[in-house]
Specification:
alpha/beta; about 40% helix; binds zinc ion; about 20% strand; 4 domains; globular; 17 helices; TIM Barrel; binds 3-methyl-2-oxobutanoic acid
Length: about 525
């Protein structure tokens, strides 16, 4: 019998983190994992432990904390790690996840002809043998094993069924069908799942069929839903749809489709939908991957009504143009809330309503920032408060902090920036640099003062709310210094301030601090 409960398997911290520039520090991963636990996801894929000692440590920490935290009478989420189907990876994965109350090993091997021939150089029989041996080995370590047939979407259907049968017999409890390259269309996924269900799973209710879709053709969500309608009961998703290339199916879109269309589908998830907006914001913040304004559920315009005729309809009855209420997904209203005369209690109470319960120290820091900003900006909205709270909470450890910034602007290429930084040892390097524009000058002065040269790949600045005194949020993507291990990695940074030049300086410093943290982690691991 097929249940009506769809398991949400979140891979923001694994497939999502594979997006260029989305590298997260271990503290950020833990913060996201905590948010996913509160959100109510069933399984958190916390990383790929064999990829680096850093990843192993992060998964271990998540397993021992989030993987042991109960939310009311809800059990902790399953904590899962990814492993290639080889003993070394499986051992590392088990080492990382075993501290969780409900650990899972997720192992995979490619099965399509193109991967067998060109990547693995294995025959069909050799693939079957490896799956049997390695799923069996994983099942000997961990009671919960998931097997994925990588590039299942382009694998011969008969052979795919054979592979899954072998994995099932060897002890896998979840069979995942990834469309690794996002090639298939909804009806094709649906018929594949129905076929595998009939031929391999049959009546077994201890086995879960799972879908994992990539968005190369923009079909990941539709394909996943089609898989669910055909009998899959686990969907692999990422917050904001981040992931390799065009990304994974978006968690919030799948969840809200199942929620909004429940009368038609009769399916449900364990997600607290009112936390979706906040979780999306957190992931944007720590990954630096911005969500486009028209993105479903969590985009800035998802609940905005511009056309007069729509506004008129909305005023008469919300349902005319709204299929779900913004509060269902926890989207903050843009009501004016606080000003410079507001006290710490009002500030803390509003933040709590928005889902932030800050420790005393963090609250003091955030309130100090609030007062500074409120001095310059007359009206503070919920969006402003969220930006400030996140800016304070998710800043990497500051090897270099900003003490002062002075810009002199004019015509031609004579823009000058002077910056004073503060190191952890209390030194205050101060440097001035010129640039073709103020931003170039600011970034050059920071590099001089920190004694490090970065390669700027992307720079964005946006205003958080409207108006001349809007709070500005800057984000950058940079590559680490040439000749270091960070040269080929993309690091992001973000900063918020009423002055966009200060916000930009903070964003650049936050990326720089991330690079220094990665160097430090590398040094400790060596
Ligand atoms: O896309 C893919 O095939 C994957 C697997 C490892 C599940 O991410
Ligand atoms: Zn994937």
């Amino acid at each position: 019998m097929t249940s009506n409960r769809v398991l949400i398997f979140d891979t923001t911290l694994r497939d999502g983190e594979q997006s260029p520039g989305a590298t997260m520090t271990s503290e950020e991963k833990l913060e996201v994992a905590r948010a996913l636990g509160r959100l109510g996801v069933d399984i958190i894929e916390a990383g790929f432990p064999a990829a680096s000692p850093d990843d192993l440590a992060a998964v271990k920490q998540i397993a021992q904390t989030v993987g042991r935290t109960h939310h009311g009478d809800r059990k902790p989420p399953v904590i899962c790690g990814l492993a290639r189907a080889v003993k070394g990876d499986l051992d590392k994965c088990w080492e990382a996840v075993q501290g969780a109350e409900r650990p899972r090993i997720h192992t995979f091997l490619a099965t399509s002809p193109i991967h067998r021939e060109h990547k693995l150089k294995l025959s069909k029989q050799e693939v079957l043998d490896q799956v049997r041996a390695m799923v069996g080995y994983a099942a000997g370590l961990c009671p919960d094993v998931e097997f994925s047939a990588e590039d299942a979407g382009r694998t011969e259907l008969d052979f795919l069924c054979e592979v899954f049968q072998v994995a099932l017999d060897a002890g896998a409890k979840t069979l995942n069908v990834p469309d690794t390259v996002g090639y298939l269309m909804p009806h094709e996924i649906g018929s594949r799942i129905a076929h595998i269900k009939e031929r391999v799973v049959g009546d077994r209710d201890d086995v879960v069929l799972s879908v994992h879709n990539h968005d190369d053709l923009g079909l990941a969500v539709a394909n996943s839903l089609s898989g669910v309608l055909a009998g899959a009961r686990q969907v692999e998703v990422a917050v904001n749809g981040i992931g390799e290339r065009a990304g994974n199916a978006s968690l919030e879109e799948i969840v809200m489709t199942l929620h909004t269309r429940k009368p038609a589908l009769g399916l449900e998830t364990g997600i607290d939908t009112t936390l979706l907006h906040r979780t999306s914001k957190l992931v944007t913040r720590v990954t630096g991957l911005q969500v486009q304004a028209n993105k479903a559920i969590v985009g800035a315009n998802a609940f905005a009504h511009e056309a007069g005729i729509h506004q008129h309809g909305m005023l008469s009855h919300r349902d005319t143009y709204e299929i779900m209420a913004p509060e269902t997904v926890g989207a903050p209203k843009t009501a004016l809330v606080l000003g410079k005369h507001s006290g710490k209690h009002a500030f803390a109470a509003r933040l709590e309503e928005l889902g932030y319960q800050l420790e005393e120290e963090a609250l003091k820091k955030a309130f100090r920032r609030f007062k500074e900003v409120a001095e310059k900006k007359k009206q503070m909205t919920d969006a402003d408060l969220l930006a400030l709270a996140q800016d304070e909470l998710h800043r990497p450890v500051e090897r270099f902090g900003l003490v002062a910034l002075q810009i002199s602007c004019g015509t031609g290429d004579l823009q000058t920036a002077t910056v004073r930084l503060r190191t952890q040892d209390g030194e205050e390097p101060t440097c001035a640099a010129i640039g073709n524009g103020p931003i170039e000058a600011v970034f050059a002065a920071i590099e001089m003062a920190a004694g490090i040269e970065l390669d700027l790949l992307e720079y964005h600045v946006r205003s958080i709310t409207g108006g001349e005194d809007a709070l500005g949020e800057a984000s950058v993507n940079v590559r680490g210094p040439a000749g270091t291990a960070q040269e080929h990695k993309v690091f992001h940074g973000a900063g918020a301030d009423v002055d966009v030049l200060v916000a930009s300086a903070k964003a650049y410093l936050s990326a720089l601090n991330r690079i220094l943290a990665a160097r430090e982690a590398e040094r400790v691991a060596a």
